[in-house]
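agent> step 3/5: call structure_predict on target 'Carboxylic ester hydrolase' (Paramarasmius palmivorus).
agent> reason: downstream docking stage needs a structural representation; sequence fetched in step 2, passing through unchanged.
tool.input:
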Amino acid sequence: MHLPAVPLAMSGLLLGRQGFDFDASCSSIASQVAAISNTTVLVTQAVPAGTTLTFPEADPSCGANTQLISTDICRVSLNVATSDSSGIRMETWLPRNWTGRFLSTGNGGLGGCIQFNDMAYTSSLGFATVGANNGHDGTSGAPFANAPEVLADFAFRSIHTNVVVGKQITEMFYGTPHTKSYYLGCSTGGRQGLKSVQDFPDDFDGVVAGAPAADFNALLAWSGNFFSITGPPSSPSFIPVPTWLTTIHQNILAQCDTIDGVQDNVIEDPTLCNYDPSQLLNVFQPFTDSEGSLLYPSPAPGSESLGIALYGGSPFAFTSDWFRFVVFNSSFNPTTLTLADYELAIELNPFNIATFKGNISAFQSRNGKLLTYHGEADGLISPFNSARYYQHVSDTMNLPPSSLDDFYRFFRISGMSHCANGDGAWEIGQGSGMSLDPDANILTAMVRWVEEGVAPDTILGTKFVNDTPSAGVAFSRRHCRFPLSNTFDGTGDSTQPDSWSCQ
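tool.output (status=ok):
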């Protein structure tokens, strides 16, 4: 795909100290990094553009263990001890075309997988980029069993540690400190971004947090509770997966797709969809405690295609692991989970992993900027929870949206599934291969906001034909900052963004 020229917001090449020699610095960086407390250098190597790196140490559950590198980088891989019984493995990728900017990537799920694709994307844009394994390897929660220090790494310490060490390595390598610091992550990575804003406000100047797994304990309880509603495949209440994907999803679209004025398989604003089938009421209801108080919002109508991971007839894997290895023990049977168990997990809240603090004034005071986004068709983390957190910050800080706009903006991405994909205009620059125009790229929009003071009012999303850029654009849509909603003008071409407005 041909990309436009790099915008002003991504220019500003720096070459570090006077007479800086990229190759020589990469050759000598190992001895410098070894002087950082609690570190063990594993690999340092100069990686030319076009190289496909292989990571044999990556756990098979993390998926592909290779990554194509599109720009010259110096790679530094190391272990950092976080206690006598825990540590993180982290990567630092230092690009030849450094812009002076630093960026940390996040993780996903129960989080022991470095996001090499995000590291490749951001280092190609000139960010000195770091990523870590969150204190354990693989997607299982088993490493948390009887290991509070490992759990502490997952809850908060890994990201902060890799930022502190990564900034030291960056200055050692280039001979000058970074100018601005950024964060990019989704799902668990979104929660990690919010955790940084809440507890480590000096770590980043700008945080992009997608589909954040905020109110983490309640989220896992909500995810697990669907099994008690639907039951196993042998249960009379069980609804087969094909029924969710066809009959139910199509019925919801039939009721709610055209509320926005266009029939395009995209529910622009699920809050306006009052889908009310009696046999599914328990699934589409908010999750409440024994006294009827809200624990977690309902799923969004239109999220069924991905929601089958929760409704498929077995306990959700992450919920099962959390209760087996954190709340109870490995012999616990997750099919027996009750509301009392969920309430216990929420009360335990190890290391305040909930990540739901409403007072982020310290981040505001240092002029930090926060952008969150959430797919409205996300079936794994309800998009209504991101709106709930936004409202929680507004209420806690006693600030209306017009005041929050100065440092915190939230974008609802219609038709986007979990972090990416879906029937909507979901390509917003959260990954590689898209325009770098700040009007259409949420990362470069953040850079422009931090460095030029221009805050995004909308983010232009793109839907490609068959999700294949070479096949052309199916439609584009400007996604509105919350609490505004997209409205079709009723007369124009619905595939064109100018036919919609934020109201």
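agent> step 4/5: record observation. Confidence is low (pLDDT under 50) at residues 1-9.
agent> proceeding.
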